[in-house]
Amino acid sequence: xxxxxxxxxxxxxxxxxxxxxxxxxxxxxxxxxxxxxxxxxxxxxxxxxxxxxxxxxxxxxxxxxxxxxxxxxxxxxxxxxxxxxxxxxxxxxxxxxxxxxxxxxxxxxxxxxxxxxxxxxxxxxxxxxxxxxxxxxxxxxxxxxxxxxxxxxxxxxxxxxxxxxxxxxxx
Length: 171
Ligand SMILES: CC(C)(COP(=O)(O)OP(=O)(O)OC[C@H]1O[C@@H](n2cnc3c(N)ncnc32)[C@H](O)[C@@H]1OP(=O)(O)O)[C@@H](O)C(=O)NCCC(=O)NCCS
Description:
Elements: H1 6-9, E1 11-16, H2 30-49, E2 52-63, E3 72-82, E4 86-96, E5 103-116, H3 133-152, H4 162-168
Antiparallel strand pairs: 1-3, 2-5, 3-4, 4-5
Coenzyme A binds next to strand 2, strand 5 and helix 3.
């Protein structure tokens, strides 16, 4: 299976925050943002592997800055690493200044997708070849994040999470 670069599947989605998308203090509702994040990330994962994908885990979401009604929101998703059947995708969320067009990063989310066949069984996915310095940094950290996610999900024993342990225990 031929490997792919992050830019081959990079996905950009632009939305506007309508009144129905806001919470009681007039900011974008977190659940609405998660919907946009999940869809944008799933498209990137699907482009990477050319298969149907499902969300296996939402590993991390940070709501760093509130996003006001009427804001133009851009979501940029990239596959950061591919394992056997799973792929990690990071979504960077930006808000555009309407007069200057300058973008401010407001949120970040990390998700795991799995490619499946028509019976829902996991399928092999192509490897990912990181290109930029940021791609390489995110690629390296992905194994650690995968182990953390699997330990939290009860799918891996903490003592087997070698990359994760190396962060805390210096031998
Ligand atoms: C995701 C799913 C296909 C995994 O199926 P499974 O039978 O458990 O398969 P496996 O145990 O072989 O896991 C498949 C891959 O998912 C990864 N995975 C599963 N849960 C994970 C988690 N919480 N975090 C990170 N990776 C996870 C495994 O590590 C494995 O990766 P690899 O093949 O790259 O090594 C299955 O659990 C599923 O269909 N879940 C529902 C998905 C869904 O409906 N999502 C929509 C939102 S509700």
